[in-house]
Design goal:
34% helix; 3-stranded parallel beta sheet; 16% strand; two-stranded antiparallel ribbon
Length: 174
């Protein structure tokens, strides 16, 4: 109802999506455990950088989501972001390909419900970890819904190609 009322008043609806990490309660953690970054090597001692979650009744330790900021010195933790969240494993190309397909399907379903666009949380970091993968999601959604708007969180020191290569929201939808 909110979406319909906003559309009737001329508003466009953009919502965030968080392609870097998820809640430990996210059903993907149980159904698609392989897509998340597990503690490696397995014998490594869990720390403030990890979270242990029961997966199918067994404790599994994962890296916390969004612990390392792209602008922080190597290994330094800044802020309290991501505490308790579980990080997707974006370094593995096969897992990344599966995540692109999952996120594309999720975002397409939101557009079908009336959402006009999305902005990617931690987009500035993601483009460093996995260059071009946000654009793959964008292309997948726009193949079905050409007018969909995309943006990404950007740190002032490093906006990333996702922002630079696309037209700004204001230019694209003036």
């Amino acid at each position: 109802q909110l979406i319909q009322e906003a559309m009737a008043k001329g508003f466009r609806i953009l919502i965030p999506f968080v392609p870097n990490h998820a809640s430990p309660q996210n059903h993907w953690l149980q159904e698609k455990t392989h897509l998340f970054k597990k503690l490696d090597p397995p014998g490594e001692v869990p720390s403030e950088k990890t979270v242990t979650v029961a997966v199918k009744g067994q404790p599994v330790t994962f890296w916390r989501g969004n612990v390392y900021h792209s602008w922080a010195p190597q290994g330094e933790i800044r802020g309290g972001f991501g505490s308790g969240t579980v990080q997707f494993d974006l370094c593995d190309p096969a897992k990344r390909k599966e995540l692109v397909a999952l996120w594309t399907a999720v975002l397409n379903s939101w557009v079908q419900r009336g959402i006009d666009g999305f902005y990617a949380d931690t987009g500035h970091s993601l483009n460093r970890i996995a260059p071009g993968w946000l654009e793959q999601i964008q292309r997948g959604v726009r193949a079905n819904h050409p007018g969909t708007v995309f943006g990404a969180e950007a740190h002032w020191q490093q906006a990333g190609g996702f922002i630079r290569r696309g037209a700004s929201f204001a230019q694209e939808h003036a």
